[in-house]
């Protein structure tokens, strides 16, 4: 049986924790098999580490799951999945991109948007505030032809307000992005 597990929330205020919950579901799309005992042990270890370390369990999970990602000063995490060999765009230039975005991790069932699925690349003026902050930051350091996985904390995405009833407030977003061209 394949299982998906995720620690939903643990907020630590001083030495007391509030709102800790977790769930375990089966999925045909899950790529890791986990038995109930392993799931409960992992959740308990993450919860304990978060409680004693004074950080959220979501951060503890993210740090563990994405240790091969580079983290920028702003908190954006990225991993280059295909090197590019073209130019790097300057602020104000228009870029042509492809992307897919998810809540809850790469390739999760909670895909919220994809230019690839529509078969239409997306163009925008990079560094001009036309897109979320994390996209401006990511694309300003990419080479044409490069493909990355990026993880945007909510402050680099839609913040506490969310977006369009699809992206909840405070959501961390996961994108697979590709810089196709500078126009």
Properties at a glance:
183 residues, alpha+beta, seven-stranded antiparallel sheet, two-stranded antiparallel ribbon, 4 helices, 35% strand, disordered N terminus
Write the topology of this structure:
Layout: E1 3-13, E2 16-26, H1 36-53, H2 57-65, E3 70-71, E4 77-82, E5 94-103, E6 111-114, H3 115-118, E7 122-125, H4 133-139, E8 147-152, E9 173-182
Antiparallel strand pairs: 1-2, 3-4, 4-8, 5-6, 5-7, 5-9, 8-9
Short note summarizing the structure:
The protein has 183 residues and is α+β, with helices and mostly antiparallel strands. The protein is 21% helix and 35% strand. The strands form 2 sheets. Strands 3, 4, 5, 6, 7, 8 and 9 form a 7-stranded antiparallel beta sheet that branches. Strands 1-2 form a two-stranded antiparallel sheet.
Distance between the termini: 48 Å
Query: Mind summarizing the main beta sheet?
Result: 7 strands, antiparallel
- Total beta strand runs: 9
The ordered string of helix (H) and strand (E) elements is EEHHEEEEHEHEE
Given the helix and strand composition, which structural class is it? alpha+beta
- What is the radius of gyration computed over CA atoms, rounded to a whole number of angstroms? 18 Å
Uncertain stretches of 5 or more adjacent residues: 1-62
Mean residue pLDDT: 77
Strand content: 25-35%
Q: How many H/I helices?
A: 4
Helix percent band? 10-25%
Estimate the global geometry from the Cα principal axes: globular
């Amino acid at each position: 049986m394949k299982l998906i597990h995720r620690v939903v929330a643990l907020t630590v205020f001083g030495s007391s924790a509030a709102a800790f919950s977790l769930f375990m579901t089966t999925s045909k799309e899950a790529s890791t098999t986990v038995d109930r005992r392993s799931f409960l042990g992992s959740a308990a270890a993450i919860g304990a580490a978060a409680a004693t370390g004074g950080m959220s369990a979501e951060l503890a999970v993210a740090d563990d799951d994405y240790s091969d990602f580079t983290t920028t000063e702003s908190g954006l995490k990225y991993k280059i999945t295909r090197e590019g060999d073209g130019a790097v765009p300057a602020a104000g230039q228009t870029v042509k991109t492809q992307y897919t975005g998810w809540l809850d991790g790469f390739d999760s069932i909670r895909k919220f948007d994809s230019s690839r699925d529509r078969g239409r690349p997306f163009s925008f003026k990079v560094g001009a505030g036309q897109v979320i902050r994390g996209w401006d930051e990511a694309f300003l350091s990419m080479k044409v032809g490069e493909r990355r996985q990026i993880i945007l904390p909510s402050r680099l995405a839609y913040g506490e307000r969310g977006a369009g009833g699809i992206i909840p407030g405070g959501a961390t977003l996961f994108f697979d992005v590709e810089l196709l061209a500078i126009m």
